[in-house]
């Protein structure tokens, strides 16, 4: 039945300690543009990944609370892409868009018994970062890096 059900004020289901998406990704990075004299470079990156979702579900029914321990509750996959502008050798500005979905068919709601729930979630996230690279010289000749800016040899 695809109709909403009202459970009353004593019902609550939440992943109170987070819904932790542990994934492995394959990422690609490429150089788009660089200005040798101004020490500015623009690069792009994209990635695809998949993994497990670990949840700790807090369930309340008729004001009786059941706090379930963390466990593998499902699987997920995601994709992200973005741009990074590197300024000089150490500073960068980065934007990233990330989207994906998770399927949680193994949510525990009342301990280790048969009581469980299912949930499917799609998501989209945008991120912006300012960063500073620490350590080392950050020259591509020292790091044997194909995507590092070529300035200041």
Short description, anyone?
Helices cover 3% and strands 63% of the residues. With 153 residues, it is mostly beta strands.
Question: Can you describe this structure?
Answer:
The chain is mainly beta and 153 residues long. 3% of the residues lie in helices and 63% in strands. The chain contains 1 helix and 8 strands. The protein has one helix at residues 140-143, and strands spanning 12-14, 19-35, 40-55, 58-61, 64-67, 71-87, 91-108, 116-132. The chain has a 5-stranded antiparallel beta sheet, with no helix packed on it. A 3-stranded antiparallel beta sheet has the order 1-4-5, with no helix packed on it. The longest helix is centred in the C-terminal third of the chain and has 4 residues, at 140-143.
Tags for this model:
single chain, 153 residues, mainly beta, five-stranded antiparallel β-sheet, three-stranded antiparallel β-sheet, 1 helix, 3% helix, 63% strand
Order of helices and strands: EEEEEEEEH
Q: Helix count? A: 1
| End-to-end CA span | 67 Å
Q: Which percent range describes the beta-strand content? A: over 45%
In terms of per-residue confidence, which ranges show pLDDT below 50 for 5 or more consecutive residues?
Answer: none
